[in-house]
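Comment thread on ticket #2218

A.B. wrote:
> Attaching the input chain for the structure job we discussed in standup.
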Amino acid sequence: MVNIAFAVIMFIIVAIGFTYIFMINKINKLDTQARDKGVEIDSALWDRSFRLSEIVKILDAKEISHEIEAPEISAFSLGMSPTVQSLNAEKLDKMNVQLNTIIKDNPGLKDEETFATNLAKFNLARQEMFKYSLAYNKAAAQYNNCISDFPGSVIASIHKKKHKEIFNYVFAELKEE
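C.D. wrote:
> Ran it. Output below, let me know if you need it in another format.
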């Protein structure tokens, strides 16, 4: 009888150990995936800001009047929170609308190779950011679900894991002001 009780207790301890190891690995994997997806948004924001600053240099060199402030590229770093990312995306989109007006008023700009290349990459980075934000939100939701349910919630609280913010920026069609 004692041997059976000992075997049952050992089985329970081993099962708890395996569950703990499995869950901590799953939580860490989902955390890493969400962080990696967030970095992709950061890189797209950085690329958009870099391309816009190059476009502003071209506008200044051609003495084309504009109110676009070249973004400080160093402000776009890796590891920004989704809230900061959303605010930066909104600022860049507002500048994008201003840029569209300038292009409309100066159609010859698109014929210049450097301008056209930077503009194309600026617009591509916005499309990529949209794709990356969907992937990040999916990864963040999976992580949040994992640490909300038992036994993940217990393990997450032991390791002080917090819920991930969602990237909240709405990618609307850019219209002229």
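A.B. wrote:
> Thanks. Noting for the ticket: The mean pLDDT is 90.
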